[in-house]
Specification:
Number of helices: 10
Shape: globular
CATH class of the largest domain: Alpha Beta
Strand order of the largest sheet: 3-2-1-4-5-6
CATH topology of the largest domain: Rossmann fold
CATH architecture of the largest domain: 3-Layer(aba) Sandwich
InterPro entries: Beta-PGM-like, HAD-like_sf, HAD-SF_hydro_IA, HAD_sf, PGP-like_dom2
Organism: Nonomuraea wenchangensis
Cofactor: Mg(2+)
Radius of gyration: 17 Å
Order of helices and strands: EHHHHHEHEHEHEHEH
Protein name: Haloacid dehalogenase superfamily, subfamily IA, variant 3 with third motif having DD or ED
Pfam families: Hydrolase
Number of domains: 2
């Protein structure tokens, strides 16, 4: 079945933001008294919606969230880089593509601008803010496909998190899961991923193999 649309996740797939969010988020929760390490934070929160994160964290003291946001913003501006190999893949990709992320529009836009990827996806960025339910529900990917005029069965999602893989599977889309990030391959396959990859530069060939 031919591919009509490639839907990229953003954090951990296009930009290497997840180690930053894990480090900053873990430290912030420890200040609240949580006994949590970075591996536990990754399993609980990486790839989730902002609403899910807020529900789990609960009430926080005055100024706590503002400090967290400021620390994250500073770290992103200083450290954010594109995922190695993604630019080479995008240079050779000859299929329509878009971004669909659980992040807020302003955060997605900032990340793409910092890494120089914004123009590659201009006007084709979708956020969990656009739908009632973010990942792991299928709503965001289905919304992106409908807006782009693509048949869900002919869409391929490129993801790095179990939440994203589950959303792709629920949407009836094929999924290429990046296993070179924070999430072990076993968690990705456990979420339903059937195609794993470690080198983003080889994505065009992987997509050709799905035709």
């Amino acid at each position: 079945m031919g591919v009509e649309l490639v839907i990229f996740d953003c954090d951990g797939t296009l930009v290497d933001s997840e180690p930053i969010s894990v480090r900053v988020g873990t430290a912030a929760l420890r200040r609240l008294g949580w006994s949590i390490d970075e591996a536990e934070y990754t399993e609980l929160f990486v790839g989730c919606t902002n609403e899910f994160w807020a529900e789990q964290v609960g009430e926080t003291p005055p100024g706590w969230r503002e400090r967290l946001d400021a620390e994250y913003e500073a770290a992103i501006k200083a450290e954010l880089r594109v995922i190695a190999g993604i630019e080479a893949a995008l240079d050779r990709l000859d299929l329509p593509s878009c971004v669909a992320s659980n992040g807020r529009h302003r955060n997605i836009r900032r990340s793409l601008e910092i890494t120089g990827l914004a123009e590659r996806f201009s006007g084709r960025v979708f956020s969990a803010e656009d739908v009632t339910r973010g990942k792991p529900a299928p709503d965001l990917f289905l919304h992106a496909a409908a807006t782009m005029g693509a048949d869900p069965e002919r869409c391929v999602v490129v993801e790095d998190s179990p939440f994203g893989v589950m959303a792709a599977v629920s949407a009836g889309m094929r999924c290429l899961a990046y296993a070179g990030g924070l999430h072990p391959a076993t968690r990705l396959t456990g979420a339903g991923a059937t195609h794993l990859f470690h080198d983003p530069a080889g994505l065009p060939e992987l997509l050709t193999g799905l035709d």
